[in-house]
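Hello again,

I reread your note about wanting to compare the complex against the isolated chains. To keep things tidy I'm splitting this into two emails, and this first one only covers the full assembly. Below are the input lines as submitted, including protein chains and any nucleic acid or small-molecule components. They are followed by the predicted structure of everything together. The single-chain runs will come separately.
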Amino acid sequence: MSIKVRQEEIIEEFGLLDGDLEMSINYLIELGDQLAPFPVNNKIDDFIVKGCQSKVWLFAQEEDQRVIFHADSNTVVTKGLVSLLVRVLSGHRAEEILNEDIYFPDKIGMGRFIGSQRSNGFSAMIKQMKLYALAINIKDKK
Amino acid sequence: MTLTLKDQLDLTAIRKQFHVLDQSVNGNPLIYFDNAATTQKPLAVISEISRYYTEDNANIHRGIHTLAERATAAYENTRKSIAQFINANESEEIIFTKGTTDSINLVAHSLGGSLLKPGDEVLISCMEHHSNIVPWQLICEKTKAVLKIIPINDQGELIFEEFLNLLSDRTKIVSMVHISNTLGTINPVKEVIAAAHKWGAKVLIDGAQATPHNKIDVKSLNCDFYAFSGHKMYGPTGVGVLYGKRSLLEAIPPYQGGGEMIKEVSFTQTTYNEIPFKFEAGTPNIAGVTGLNKAIEFVQSIGLDQISHHENKLLLRATTQLSEIEGFQPMGTASEKASVISFNVEGVHPFDLGVLLDAKGIAIRTGHHCTQPLMDRFIVEGTARASFAIYNTFEEVDQFVSVLSSLIKKLR
Ligand SMILES: Cc1ncc(COP(=O)(O)O)c(C=O)c1O
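Full-complex prediction:
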């Protein structure tokens, strides 16, 4: 499934919630719950993406020329948020991750239900994921 | 004088003055428990700002026309009200600023800058707001003075003996919060001031959280400076107060230069205006100041005794009910405490609580509350904080605790 299709999937799912804040957040928390367990050994400061009030751990591995992301957070809401990104970006080629536009946050009205400060944190996560992809891409080309 | 405090305030009438409270947020009636950050404004304050711009707007002090006279009168009348409100000797001792932060920066710059020599010491407590830390760090860096921290105990109270031990003839300034915005602790500032004065130190009290709840008497406290913000006591944002003793205000240099604060300007020599104008450079927030007068009238119409009586009952009810929640970890359990509850719940991040409470229309604050060193002291990343004001009700407290309990069950 392409990055675009996965984004469309998320837009559709959140569309069903009809903009209800509480249901959206609860759904987000459920999605975060389903995130694959984060390797304990990697829960180190090097993998922290600075958010506003919560911590996010994020790292990437390359398997069969695909970038696999692992993420975790100390808050369930943020974990849900980062799980959306993992779902959209994990398992793709580095080049695809670098070139694809991430447009689903606007479409699901993310800013409205997570607030502007947390949107900043969210942008930082996207940036970090693209940086991982960039590093892997450069390594592959060598 | 004996005061009889009504057990049942006319909260309906009070709430009618706060239209903002009468709304739904995310499908639920708004419960506003973020009053330590800023309080809502009564109609009288909002209409005064609008009235001022509609009827009186002019620049103050220099104009000779009627509108300028009216605007000046409105502005200066507020100064008089504030002097009475905090029992200052005279209204010249009241300086209008942008807020507590601005007031503290003024004192750090003008008093600190002229008084501090290398090796001198400034004392602050471990529970200060960043506004009462960073200005002192800046001036200490500049003057090579040393910033010392008075420790607190596990209840979140000042350790008074440690404070006494820190005092010496090197102590030039003590700057301390009256009521902690994070812990709710009411500090024994009168005793602090007396002890500091014995060593000849000057004392600034950060009253940002105190003026909305307690009667302040700067004369009886005998503080040298007292700082507070309009917006935390039902007044507008962008306007605050610095009280200072006349002798000190006259002795220290101005903070900012510009119009209003001068007597005569030439390129070779400039003489400064008298206090308070010496410290009010540029056109001030005239509308905000006149609005602040209405906020003071509002507070006085209810009475600070009545206000703190009501808020203490809210605090007691909330504390009692919250304590029944398994894993409830309050931060700040001082015996003298204002209506602020900071807490963590075992196994739940305060941020998640904040987001989910908001979805239920309940506004609280989560994070470090601009007191990061205090978070380090208690070894927590942050807390959830509910803070109450005169318009809050028992029903709101009950609803808050009940929603919170069910959220915690879900999150665990
Ligand atoms: C204790 C304390 N001091 C200082 C401040 C700063 O006040 P302001 O932002 O109005 O300047 C606050 C506001 O949060 C406070 O609670």
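For quick reference: The interface with chain A takes residues 26-27, 349-352, 355-356, 358-360, 366-367, 381-382, 411 of chain B (CB under 8 Å).

B.
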